[in-house]
Amino acid sequence: MTQAPELAISQWFNTDTPLTLAQLRGRVVVLHAFQMLCPGCVQGGIPQAQRIANLFSPDKVAVIGLHTVFEHHDAMTPVALKAFLHEYRITFPVGVDVPGECTPIPQTMAAYGMQGTPTLILIDRAGRIRKHGFGAEDDLRVGADIALLTAEPASA
Amino acid sequence: MTQAPELAISQWFNTDTPLTLAQLRGRVVVLHAFQMLCPGCVQGGIPQAQRIANLFSPDKVAVIGLHTVFEHHDAMTPVALKAFLHEYRITFPVGVDVPGECTPIPQTMAAYGMQGTPTLILIDRAGRIRKHGFGAEDDLRVGADIALLTAEPASA
Amino acid sequence: MTQAPELAISQWFNTDTPLTLAQLRGRVVVLHAFQMLCPGCVQGGIPQAQRIANLFSPDKVAVIGLHTVFEHHDAMTPVALKAFLHEYRITFPVGVDVPGECTPIPQTMAAYGMQGTPTLILIDRAGRIRKHGFGAEDDLRVGADIALLTAEPASA
Amino acid sequence: MTQAPELAISQWFNTDTPLTLAQLRGRVVVLHAFQMLCPGCVQGGIPQAQRIANLFSPDKVAVIGLHTVFEHHDAMTPVALKAFLHEYRITFPVGVDVPGECTPIPQTMAAYGMQGTPTLILIDRAGRIRKHGFGAEDDLRVGADIALLTAEPASA
């Protein structure tokens, strides 16, 4: 199993202090990568991430949104994202992925090898990637996947 | 925790041999009680039970439908149920709850104290009732609830 | 344009007096053919027919359900239909299509050449068939189709 | 009936030439006012406007989107709107409402007395306002409303 690369974030929303995966070790991390103008994210992935955040105890499961802008960079700015998060009543922490150099793909997106948005990544309590899904995910399966990871021991 | 009462079934569909909870010990049992003319069952509970049956391995999770007719008894006969299961492509085993004596409530429904349909009951690997829900249930939560029970040891 | 054949009905629900197309001349008639155990009818066609009945004035638009049982005859009896209409809160008149002789296809279904259920037939104010649709129909289009027929003069 | 005020538009998308209501006289105009970050617009109003544009002949019914930004002005810029229209596959013409002076409410929105977004306004073939709806609208009713206006004579 692959260790999850640390997040590279230029700006956070919905959290007072920056978050790191290192600091979240011991909890299951649900990393939801999206773009605010991606219809599949708005209709499916983002509401699902919010439902996950509402269901599981934050002591056990940390939901983190990752704004991985790889197209329409001048439209999906942090200012626009802030308004989006407000209008859609998103309450979980969201980090802006650091833009790439000489590439439209931002850095965390590249480090994880994501194919597009929405992408759902589950990281276990020991910091390892256990699921990497591109596109729509079934609530029933995602609920089961996350629950099983919470039932594992914290250390590898 | 309460031990789950054994099922009282007059007729089975979608299984060659009658099922008992005793025989399913070691597996998580998802007991979905419905009536074929209950709109909330048709729109929500029954499709959810089918999704559960599709997702989890039958070695670990046994989905059982229970036709708990407590009203319109002359409409929801076993003949009608058979046509219903065919038309709605239900593949999991379904048992007809034994009619009550001097009461419209059938016997298994009474033994479990169900309030109506749909009702979802989760029975753990040791045969104990762990969840008893009346009405619509969230896929995310149900997926998590079932998964956690599969992760428990088989004996109490 | 074809004149709509008169309905052959063995039993009515949700109306005190039997209905005939002759008697409804001057109004647009929405004829919704269904079977109570047809999933596409339960999920799509029947709720749409109820929405039509709720939206348009009965002085202008008469919604009639037609129970065209062509399979599972012993399951979809008038007794079962009565319970179904009660449970699904259907308020518009529903007639049971007269069973065929030497054929599973009932008489009105045969007279109209329907291919299956759900079928939606629109009859204009002069009693002529103006739309004959098999399968799911779009609300926007159906609303427009019916409205245009109400705007036509009553006589051919 | 009130004559529909002319549109005040700073920039058009999805049309080579600017549109005016005067020029569309003789057709029914469906004016859909939205904001690109309004959840009710994205989930309901905008897809409905696209369905209307797909269903009715453009010779008879002109669908026009109006981007009435009254909040989050720095987020919902024309650059962001352009990306939004591309991502959501919007094909009907969309005009950007001219910003207000000394007020967050843009000019066309103010002239029509709109309460918020989404708003659906139907303008008849003679240029008069015939429907002014704020919030979610039923497809069946909207289809009927539009169809009836197309059946009216062109001159008042």
TrEMBL record, chains A, B, C, D:
It holds the Pfam family Redoxin. Residues 1-151 form the Thioredoxin domain. SUPFAM superfamilies: Thioredoxin-like (SSF52833). GO terms for molecular function: oxidoreductase activity. Signal peptide: none annotated. Gene3D superfamilies: Glutaredoxin (3.40.30.10). InterPro entries: Redoxin, Thioredoxin-like_sf, Thioredoxin_domain, Thioredoxin_ResA/DsbE_sf. It comes from the Bacteria. This is Thioredoxin domain-containing protein. It comes from Afipia carboxidovorans (strain ATCC 49405 / DSM 1227 / KCTC 32145 / OM5).
